[in-house]
Structures are given as structure tokens and as C-alpha cells.
Write a structure and sequence with these properties.
single chain, mainly beta, 13-stranded antiparallel beta sheet, 3 helices
Length: 411
Amino acid sequence: MSRIRRINRRTCSSAVSRLMRVFWTTLIGFPVIFRILGILGGVSILGLWAGWSGDLFAAAERGNPAARLLPGELAHERWDLTARFASGHFLFAEFLITNFGLGDRNAAVIGHVIRPNGQSRRFRNGRRESRWQLSSDRLRMEVGSSLLDQRSPKHQLRVRKKSTRIELDFYPRGPAVWSADFPPSGYALDLLDPAAQAAGSVWVKGMDEPVTIHGTGAVTHSWANEAESDLVLRRLEFFLFPDVQSEMSLYLADLTTPHGARSSWLVVKKGQRVVHEAQNFHLRLDGNVKNVGSYYLPQQLSFESAPSHPHIRGRVQLDRLLLLYDPLADIPQPFRFLVSLKLKPRRMWLLSPFEIALHLDQASAPITLTGTGITKVSFLNPLPSPRPDATVSLFQGFRATGPFKQLPGWS
């Protein structure tokens, strides 16, 4: 077992930052500060920047799930797991390290278990610097009663709370994949595995006993040395988990910046091998727009890569809502109102039927993939409405009554 060390306090690099931290600490104490500022990956209310001359995005640093421990005062990094199990359960979990809030290198865990009947149970842990543990190789982090161990060959996720018990082992098939040109400048996203095999048990309050689970999970690792809200307004991801016949998995990501620029990336793997990768390909967000309050979602994704082989085209419908989560929900008033003046985040997960045709080469017939995947959409702030008269409430139904039509501003 690797030696476990404590995270050491780092000196604040800004006089303004020190004063603000003292103010917040005196006013409401760390637990609320951390939920307000840390778990969101940094809020740009203060506009602080410590400066950093190193290369956080060098190829030598990519694909390694180890923690970076970034230097910027608004720096953050997180590991996201999206998993689906044969029992009908879903697990969405995020482990986060951020320098924002009281001190540096604070850590948090937020996750949700979705039961087959649709009921959800949230779990969370948060610890300030020096009160959580990181192994010397930075691959094992323990935050309160939550653990993420990414040391090969078997990775582990453990949650041992009074209302939630999760014992999950997952086996990444590697290697990790990334694109240096895909995300906005200053933002990194590694696809550690689009379809790791996962098995274990889960129990949440209301269940008679733990249930054995086995299925598939996708794991991503993202980081930035500044506030995420300054770099990404919306992060949309689609996960296609493999079936026994094809062994094909697919990951599609589309990022929208606060200035409206978009970039997209697609990876197709068969087992451990990448069979197709494309970025900034032809991606349309079609159909009547679903409305979740002030948050607008397309009803369908349509995409197609360049005509050369390998070639892929497909359609994904954003269908049934599994979970809608407001990261500000736990913050008491009036602090929630104050933070919401600058930041209105939402996260949502939807079941997504798909139909995809993959043509690897001229000598072989196209491979047709059909089924239901998962789409995750993370908003740091709402996007402008594409067209008011084209929206349909997400809570009133998900199907359009007419043919799909591309909306202005969504191409």
C-alpha cells in the first residue's frame, strides 16, 4: 500500500485573497464556504489569478489520472464517473480538488445513486486542506467517508455514509485518450476510459439490503488553472456503452464557451483500441428545444465526420430525464442569492436512444449501433434562448410532434 500523506497548507499569494478568505471564514465558517465556492470549481466573483508559467497541458502530463495539485487560486480538477448497471441502477459521482475557498487544495465529493424506480439519493463529502488524504503517487484520494483509488489494475470507489454505501471496483481498459486542440485554451479534458467494466454493491436509505451491481462506467478527468465558469458555459457529453456483440464504446463531447464558441470531440473504441477519433466535425443540435427553467436543450444531436474512412454518422435523442441537480441548492439564503447573481449552474442526466452507422474502411460493411446511452449536460450559466416559440417544457413531455428542424443559432 502506498504511503498516505497529508496535504500541506500553501501560502496565499494574494493579499486580497487572504482578506477575502478571512472575511468568509469569520462570517459563515468553512462548510458553507466550501459548498458555495469550492464545489462549483471556482466562481469568478473575485476575479483572482495567481499566475502560472508551467505547462499544465503538456503531452507528458496527459492521460495520467493522478492529481495535478494546480497552483492557481481559482484552479480546480475533477474526476467524473458515469455508470449504468444491469440491475437498473445508475451512479453519477464527482471527486473534486479546488484552490478556491478557505485555503488551497480543498477536496469534495458529490454523487447520486438512481434506483430502478427512479428515486435518487445524493451523497457528499467536503474537507478543507490538511483534512483529507492523498497518496504519494496522487492516485488515491480519501475525502471523509468517500474514497477514489485509481491505482491499476483494479480501481476502487468507496462511499461509507449512514444513508449511502457503495463498494465499486472498476477495471479501465486503457489507454486514456485526449485531444490537445479540442477544449478551449486553458482547459484540459482526458477520457480515461469510455467503458470500464464495473462491479460491486450499493445500498441507500430505503433499501432493505445491499444489491449486487455490475455494468459499465465512463471516467473523465478535467482541470483548469482558472475558474471553469470563465472557460466553459455548457459541457455536453454523450456516453455509448458497449454491448456484448460489438464491444464498441463511444464518447462525444461538445463545449460552449461564455463567448459562444463551440468545439466538439468524438472517440470510438473497440475494446482497448481506438478505431475512430474526430474533432470539430459536423455536429447539429436539432429539433424543438426542451426547456428546463432557463436552461435550453436540443431534442436531438446529429453528427457526421469527414467522408473519408473511417466515417461515422449518427443521431442521438435527449429523451427521459434521469436527474436534475442544482449545485447551489444546499447553500442557505442569503448566500445562495448572492452567489446566484454571478453563477446559476445546473447539471442533468438523460437517457438517450441512438442510432449510429460506423464505416471503418471501404472493404468492410458499415457497423450499425442502436440502443440507449446517457447524455450529461453541465451548465455553468444558462444559454440564451434560441427561439422562444420553439421551446417545450422538459416536464411536459420529451417528444416533438413534427419533423426535426434545425434551429437558428444551434448549428
